[in-house]
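The passage that follows is intended for readers who have already worked through the single-chain material. We present the inputs for a multi-component assembly, then the predicted structure in tokenized form, and finally a short commentary. You are encouraged to pause after the input and sketch how you expect the pieces to fit together before reading on.
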Amino acid sequence: MNLTICKLTKYYNNQLVFKNIDMIMEAGNVYGLKGDNGSGKSTLFRIIAGLEKQTFGEVLYNKKKFDNTVQRKITYMHQKPYMMKKTVFKNILYPLTIRNKIDEKDIKKTYKIMEELDLYKFKDKKAWNLSGGEMQKVSLARAIIFEPEILLMDEPTAHMDKKTVETIEKMVIKRQRKNKMLTAIITHDTKSLDRLFDRVYYL
Amino acid sequence: MNLTICKLTKYYNNQLVFKNIDMIMEAGNVYGLKGDNGSGKSTLFRIIAGLEKQTFGEVLYNKKKFDNTVQRKITYMHQKPYMMKKTVFKNILYPLTIRNKIDEKDIKKTYKIMEELDLYKFKDKKAWNLSGGEMQKVSLARAIIFEPEILLMDEPTAHMDKKTVETIEKMVIKRQRKNKMLTAIITHDTKSLDRLFDRVYYL
Amino acid sequence: SESTKKSTSNDNNSSKKEEINSNNDKSAKEKKSIILATTTSTENSGLLDYIIPNFEEKYGREVKVIAVGTGKALTMGENGEADVLLVHAKSSEEAFVEAGHGIKRYDVMYNDFVFLGPKEQTLIDEESSSAVKVLTKIAEEKGTFVSRGDDSGTHKKELSLWEDSGIKPEGDWYVSAGKGMGDTITMADEMEGYTLSDRATYLSRMKDVDLEIVAEGDELLFNQYGVIPVNPEKSDMINKNGAEEFVEWILGDTCQSMIEEFGKEKFGQSLFVPNGK
Amino acid sequence: MKYILEGFFEAFKLILSCDTEVYQIIGFSLLVSMTSTIISSIIGIPIGFFTGLHNFKFKDYYSRILFTMMGLPPVVIGLLVALFLARRGPLGSFQLMYTPIAMIIAQTILVTPIITGNIFNYTKEHGPIIYEVSKTLGCEFWQRVIFLFQEMRIIIFIGMAQGFGRAISEVGAIMIVGGNIKGHTRVMTTFIAMNNSMGNYGISIAMGIVLLTISFFLNTLMYRLIERDIK
Amino acid sequence: MKYILEGFFEAFKLILSCDTEVYQIIGFSLLVSMTSTIISSIIGIPIGFFTGLHNFKFKDYYSRILFTMMGLPPVVIGLLVALFLARRGPLGSFQLMYTPIAMIIAQTILVTPIITGNIFNYTKEHGPIIYEVSKTLGCEFWQRVIFLFQEMRIIIFIGMAQGFGRAISEVGAIMIVGGNIKGHTRVMTTFIAMNNSMGNYGISIAMGIVLLTISFFLNTLMYRLIERDIK
Ligand SMILES: Nc1ncnc2c1ncn2[C@@H]1O[C@H](COP(=O)(O)OP(=O)(O)OP(=O)(O)O)[C@@H](O)[C@H]1O
Ligand SMILES: Nc1ncnc2c1ncn2[C@@H]1O[C@H](COP(=O)(O)OP(=O)(O)OP(=O)(O)O)[C@@H](O)[C@H]1O
Ligand SMILES: [Mg+2]
Ligand SMILES: [Mg+2]
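Having made your guess, compare it with the prediction:
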């Protein structure tokens, strides 16, 4: 799914965040989004994901406006990860449960991703007792397993150790192998991840 | 104030976090603390700051056990910053208000630090509406202005842009000029900040 | 059976239903129940629990007892919220029938009001036994007097007595409670004051209060209970037959003798004296 | 003093005595109050969610009105319901006065604001992020609602427990619309009130103890149901 | 129906009519219920903080007992207080029965669990981090408490509003221990209940309307006080 952002402007109670942003993001690519604190990166992603309303301008998904079908194909990973009041396993499995009955395949899939991010040992742990980085891992796993066509990650690696960052790079690359997947990542980190980006936007 | 950590061990309901840690941190130095996610960095800091009880071992402050006088000289910056239900200005000013009546000097001091971190424009903004990085700035400013002898920062730069990281380096260096100040910083970031550290511990 | 005869012998539609009911099933619950609005004294003394079951199995009709002050009971009748009233404020009752709210008023039973006061009280003695004298004495000596103050039959009676004594009761000594008889007795006991109560309620409360009868017997203290079937024109939901049955029954010999019996073994005397006519 | 001990003693007698009337009163109270609580939840929880999540004009007037309604006086509710259901009243033809239905109506009016208020407050603070997450994970409308339920089950429990507690313990409304009719509309509280004015303090306290014991065990039961994997 | 309109009409008459008794009743109700709410807050808020922050054995039994106590039946409370204060009761010598003090005692018992419960629930979830921050910023014990107050002022307001609402609207307890004595211990709810039992529906509803209006404005007032710089 392709994204076209034109003349996007956002005010929070008449305090300007950004103005007349134009961007194009095409399926199959990985985009980086950088900018100073408060430049509006998260806000932009939240607007794209339909969590917030822009003040002016519009976002088009394959030339169409935002609607339920888009909603189902897009995921935004919050900058501050939210853990459901469930075990780690159930947290990660959740996106699959809402589609249809869980089968062996789903469980396997979940276990696999947990192992990759070495969360398996926390399988039955209460997710809200995890460490900062572990929480980010969980919310990432949850987003990846959902397999959205558009994946918006808000500083996913902020609290993660080097090892994990590399794992994630691998995952993103793997994900991109399927065509028509679009991934966009906000990061302040100047070195790692960069090699993933087909293009970097600055706010 | 010097820190001596000996044979420190922590279990969360009989799940081991770390075991028999020995460390010495001396006033006048800046220490880095690194380690994988879940290696127990935050937990260690929280124990040092007296927010959590260790399972075994002990932490000595100038050879003395933790007590109120220590409490008053030590600050821990949470990994997930907490914003008081106040304006940005009042958030940062707070540590001074609890000591004694606020005077011109205090106000000036607060304004100065806000300008350094360019938070001044948010002076009267509700702190909980700030962006992730802005919140980290506020909680950092709050900690610095408190001028603790021991300052424990838990991934302070995770969400911060490059520019700000440099400002923070400057602040830490300035802070260290006063003698008997001890600063310890948790970070996953492999490049920046490193030049600050007199010594780096790994968990 | 009797019940079917009753329901066939009438024309109002609500009981046409009954007829059908009672034909295919004559069990008690099937016949339209009646709402009896009465005073707290008849329920709190336990009389109704004692006699009502007899009516229910005899006529196969349930009685829903709403125990309120006489004032409210009359209002309920006036609004057609109740089918039949069992109350004790003769003058108001007659006015009620006059105004066409009720069909007719029948005497059912009586007992009497008694003045209660603390044990070993000295204020009231033999020669001040007449109701008016008692009240005058209390008023003069400013002895605490707890009044129902709830527009109930007892309250109406008390007010009329003050009327007769020509005293306007007011001041700290005159406590207007706005409560039922039982609670008022509790309060009088608690405040070591005087009050006017119907004998039945007093006897049923005797065991747990330090009050005793300080004056009784004045014919002014006569307490007549009357039954009034509410005028069916008040509301098309009024159960006319039920009301008639109830009146017929309560004035009947069986019930009258039950009233005579009630309380004898427990209190050594009957709480109400039947005089149904 | 002695009444209180006596009360405990009587409480046991009451339970053990196979006095069907007592059981019937207890069962009936539970029936009425539970029904009202459930109806109130069905009305109140969605309203709480909705008004908590969305921003609308006069939202804080709304919230203050809600708080005020949480303190609706039972007697007033009872009276109003009575006026509507009375034979003379607009709904008189249904003949609901002095029936369990009337009691349930009154208690529902009493309890709904309590449940709504609890849900509303919590949703206002925690709802948005929860709702956002459910959206980003591709939940359909109904799945979002279910998601909210799951994540808020604690506060929902608290709200319902509070509502039920209010219902089972109030006497003002239920006395007026129920009429405390023996064998029909007599519940624990009206039973207590009546025995009070009859001077049977022991049995009043006994029934009070029974009442509290029951609602404690009900809370425990409900709590167990939602407790699973929560701190 | 007509009663309800009549009620509104009477309500205005009631307020405008310089009937001192009415004013006196209203004022007295406020006095009693506010006093109880304040006392309950002084008792309940600290307990709520403390039990919410600390982990102790049987904490969840405690919380369920608390929820149960939030539904204490007014009539039972009234009865128990009465038995203690009665002439023959353990505290009889103080002669408190049928005095405002008795009413305040009863309502305090009624309201305290409500305030405690609200604070406890919120503290359990949000207290720890707040308390930690106050520690790390070098607050002395008292400053920490103040800090908790400031950060939790919303829920404190809600708790107190709920408690007051419960107090001002209950009739069961206050009727028993107060006695509804004209000119002495008569409050809005007992006034309503009494007129109700006398069939004066209009005036009952009128007083009900007055009651709700008053508690609405009180909520508004309190809310204004704490609202400052909160979303
Ligand atoms: N309250 C708790 N209950 C149970 N386990 C906990 C709790 N807090 C932390 N843990 C566990 O203890 C371990 C250490 O946590 P800690 O937050 O110290 O890790 P960390 O080194 O700070 O990780 P990160 O770099 O992600 O912040 C983690 O595995 C975490 O799951
Ligand atoms: N709900 C809100 N109300 C008012 N202002 C807001 C709100 N949310 C964000 N802002 C402001 O909008 C600006 C952009 O916020 P945003 O979170 O998009 O920044 P960001 O680029 O993500 O910064 P960071 O890198 O720190 O995450 C910030 O200055 C922030 O203070
Ligand atoms: Mg951001
Ligand atoms: Mg950490």
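Commentary: Chain A has a mean pLDDT of 92. The radius of gyration of chain A is 17 Å. How closely did your sketch match?
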